[in-house]
Specification:
Blueprint (H helix, E strand, L loop, with lengths): L35 H11 L2 H15 L2 E2 L9 E2 L3 H11 L4 E6 L4 H13 L3 E6 L29 H10 L4 E5 L5 H8 L4 E5 L10 H5 L12
Parallel strand pairs: 3-4, 3-5, 5-6
Antiparallel strand pairs: 1-2
Helix pairs in contact: 2-3, 5-6
The structure holds iron/sulfur cluster.
Length: 225
Amino acid sequence: MKNKLPDCAHCPVEPARRLCQKEGGLSPDWCPTRNRDLIDRCLQIYGQPEIQEFARVASVQEGEGYGGRELGYDRVKPVKPRILEIIEFARRMKFNRLGLVFCVGLRNEAEAVGSLFADHGFEVVSVSCKAGGLPKETIGVRNEEKINVGMPETMCNPVMQALVLNSEKTDLNVVMGLCVGHDSLFFKHSRAPCTVLAAKDRLLGHNPLAAVYTLNSYYRSLKKS
Ligand code: SF4
């Protein structure tokens, strides 16, 4: 097992007995919780007041996502949709200006979300993935690689989305339905911290885990072995 890459997804220890969840708990050789150097570096980073406050508020928000805590861990239940968590987190952090980047395919949802944020007192800067109006040829996409083959088509422009929000000095950027890879570029170029309201899945109604939940049944053809 030595020299294996960290792989918590395949931790052999049952959750309640794991080193990361129980002092003196068990762990495999490659467990990241055994890496004292990295833990110390984390602590240095959390030692920055701004980061510590961000992390603290996120954890408070996490805790308040459960009702019935007074009844014990086995009785808790979720009580808030993610969109409310984003609103509450932004308010707790005293954020005033929210960025909203969305896929043009979710423009109706973006209108609703932008209005809801405004209704809760936030300034909203929203930017469609097509902002900038650059043709797909700009990045070397060929005619036959377009959605509407052979026709003029505007490229998704996540770098532009990030630059608009950066120049408007948003406090928190909310991502809604950007394509795989376009979202990566947005995260890379956004100056403000980001959170995801919705991950795009064109086939599954933006619920990508539906394919995961059915990997042993309807989506078994995805598996290689
Ligand atoms: S941190 Fe260690 S104990 Fe925790 S899940 Fe990962 S490998 Fe297992």
